[in-house]
Amino acid sequence: MNRSVYLYILVMAGVTYLIRMLPLTLIRKEIKNTYVRSFLYYVPYVTLSVMIFPAILSATSSVWSGGAALAVAAFLAYRGKSLFQVSTAACAAVFVLEWLMDLL
After folding, report:
1. What are the pLDDT digits (tens) for 43-85?
2. DSSP label at 5?
3. At 21, is the secondary structure helix, strand, or coil?
4. Which residues contact 75 (CB under 8 A, 6 or more apart)?
5. For all residues of the chain together, what is the average pLDDT?
6. CB 57 within 8 A of CB 67
7. Burial category of 1 from C-beta neighbours within 10 Å (exposed 0-12, middle 13-18, buried 19 and up)
8. 3-class DSSP assignment, residue 33
9. How far apart are CA 67 and CA 64, in angstroms?
10. Cβ of 76: how many Cβ atoms within 10 Å?
11. 8 Å CB contact between 101 and 63
12. Contact, 60 vs 101, CB < 8 A?
């Protein structure tokens, strides 16, 4: 292997370490700004949504069935249904739409 590959890995490890370590060492006081607190509260949810959303649409053989499953899951989650009910209904929606598209 080329020696520069090890240099790249070392630099990437250092940058990753610094990104995770600097906030812990620089910010020692409690954050009192309500805007910053609310922003930091929603960061995990937004990050998870951004990672999952493209996979929802591309996990099935058709974007339409993935979109329908997303709509069904979002509706049921909004209505306060359990995770099991939401996931079962989304899977059923994909199954029915894929079956209907195979018939056509």
Report:
1. 888 998 899 889 988 889 889 999 999 999 999 999 999 999 9
2. H
3. helix
4. none
5. 90
6. yes
7. exposed
8. coil
9. 5
10. 18
11. no
12. no
| Chain centre distance of CA 42 | 12
- 100, 60 in Cβ contact below 8 A? no
DSSP secondary structure string, 34-95?
Answer: HHHHHHHHHHHHHHHHHHHHHHHHHSSS-HHHHHHHHHHHHHHHHTT--HHHHHHHHHHHHH
The structure tokens listed for 87 are 């996931």
Residue with tokens 């329908």: 68
Q: How much is the pTM?
A: 0.61
Are 66 and 56 contacting, i.e. CB atoms less than 8 angstroms apart? Answer: yes
Q: 82: which 2 tokens?
A: 């359990």
Cβ pair 88, 72 in contact under 8 A: no
**Tokens read off for 85:** 């009910």
Residue 29 phi/psi, 5° resolution?
Answer: -85, 160
Task: Answer for the pair 70, 54: CB distance below 8 angstroms, yes or no.
Answer: no
